[in-house]
Amino acid sequence: MPEEAEPGRVRPGGRTARVREAVLRAAEDALTELGFSGLDLADVARRAGVGKTTVYRRWGTAAGLVADLLSDMAEQSAPRTETGSLLGDLKANARLVQRTLTDARQGPLFTALIAAATSDARTAAALHHFYDIRVREWAPCVRQAVDRGEVPEGTDAHEVVRAVSAPLYYRLLISGGRLDEAAADHAAEATAAAARAGAYVRDGTEPA
């Protein structure tokens, strides 16, 4: 699965950019502490040190604020790991997702973002865009594996990357199973084995 953004970076800009930065960081704090159901624009304004009318005028609703936060996070990234083997790359990806989802701040934040996306179409679209970017960032490791002959021609790189983190998100959101490095490594190993066996070879269509 895609690498997760590291929230909290400050970018240069004028007053409008500074206000947006402060509000988005305050929204992160509120989501982490209270979840999506506890997100209140007036509370976010207080945390950010800006007027309520500014927040309501610009973002309108809690869902609109979350959608903008996801857009901001989608722009942030770190270099992906290259180990020289598909399994090594997929393990690096899986462990990054695992660390993100078990982090004291980012774990609750991502849980809240996913919850928000289930009830608002705009937020869902922003979440899809966020993860699409992360998948695209890691897809080259699969294409390199094709070039090395590790997996068959026609392997859908995007599906391979998605398959790595799917069981980790399942443990986080559904089963409540242990979400440790062993789980991350197992997800990577299972995905690599399936890819080598041709499970992700597409039928001539472009990856979704």
UniProtKB/TrEMBL annotation:
The cross-references to PROSITE patterns, in alphabetical order and at most eight, read:
HTH_TETR_2
The entry lists its GO molecular-function terms as: DNA-binding transcription factor activity; transcription cis-regulatory region binding
- What superkingdom does the record give? Bacteria
Q: Where is the signal peptide?
A: none
- Residues in HTH tetR-type domain copies: 17-77
Residue spans binding DNA: 40-59
Xref: InterPro entries:
Homeodomain-like_sf, HTH-type_TetR-like_transc_reg, HTH_TetR, Tet_transcr_reg_TetR-rel_C_sf, TetR_C
Gene3D superfamilies with a match to the protein in the record = Homeodomain-like (1.10.10.60), Tetracycline Repressor, domain 2 (1.10.357.10)
Q: Which Pfam families match?
A: TetR_C_11, TetR_N
Entry keywords, A to Z: DNA-binding, Transcription, Transcription regulation
* Official protein name in the record: TetR family transcriptional regulator
Give the originating organism. Streptomyces kanasensis
